[in-house]
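Obj: model holo form, ligand = uridine-5'-diphosphate.
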Amino acid sequence: MYDYLIVGAGLYGAVFAREMTDAGKKVLVIDKRDHIAGNVYTETKEKIHVHKYGAHIFHTNIKEVWDYVTRFATFNRFTNSPVANYKGELYSLPFNMYTFNKMWGVVTPEEAAAKIEEQKKAAGITKPKNLEEQAISLVGIDIYEKLIKGYTEKQWGRDCKDLPAFIIKRLPVRLTFDNNYFNALYQGIPMGGYTKMVENMLEGIEVRLGEDYLLDRAKWDAMAEKIVYTGPIDAFYDYSEGLLEYRSVRFETEVLDKPNFQGNAAVNYTDRETPYTRIIEHKWFEFGKDDEGKDIPKTIISREYSSEWKKGDEPYYPVNDEKNAAVYAKYKALADKEEKIIFGGRLGEYKYYDMDGVIAAALGKIKEMR
Ligand code: UDP
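Output (holo structure tokens):
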């Protein structure tokens, strides 16, 4: 008999397992995949750590979370500075003075601010109600049309008018020459890859891979006092309250016989016509003396295609619009009545968490239980 059965060996599950084990509890972690680390999983090919389920750049402003992760990995000094490619024109991201200069020829912050204000006024937006209005009021119509509209509609498969404003607020807008994508005090990539970091978190803890909890629930439930479930909450309830929508992502990964394909870890293709949203060149996540992949003569790239999730696909992004919020509220009401089950993580809570948010949530849940 275990105190905790943890379903899912991603970040939520790994943090929970570590903390409970350290508190003297008997813990078993299972995962239906044949590897740990959930979607932060990295695999090593040609000495390069390939982010198999999409780019993950760790960033946080929460000191407790940074102190926590640095117990399990040394982080390099990678700073995310994606480049946007709009029909061959290159722009700096996030939106900053380099972007404004290239877009409008403006040179000073005042000129940039005036240009944004002028475009915002022309659009007549006072209170932004959706992503489109939010974007235009933050950066104006030109940037919206070249760098946001196409990318967002490809990524979410929905019109920008039908998406919540908060998604675009993830991106900073700055009147300085600063290409750092994140407003975070702490940022980097674990040297040796995320898989190694999660392996360190799970050290000494029993993990069984290739085990699908939902296929034999009675068996697993009988094995533990409490269950921590980090899979999709709608699947847990056999979709009784309706399907929650997710976006899925497909990656086309290629090893190229050249040392440098695009000169940057991430290039976003922001036009509507290019079928993929971005290309990741994994070696440029490496930074520092122990990350040797960046010096090899080959490179590995992944083209990222976004699609609507259907049963059997991997869910990546919850679609946090009103319709799904209403469905989720019904599942949440069921979850709140459970005495034996704790739901956590991006899928368990149907929330567009970043990695630090997931870790903070797991640590918070444990504190609450003490
Ligand atoms: N976004 C955009 N253009 C870009 C990059 C991002 O319009 O070149 C928008 C898009 O709506 C996206 C949101 O900003 O969904 C958040 O982007 P982020 O890079 O944070 O998404 P993630 O890395 O989680 O996929």
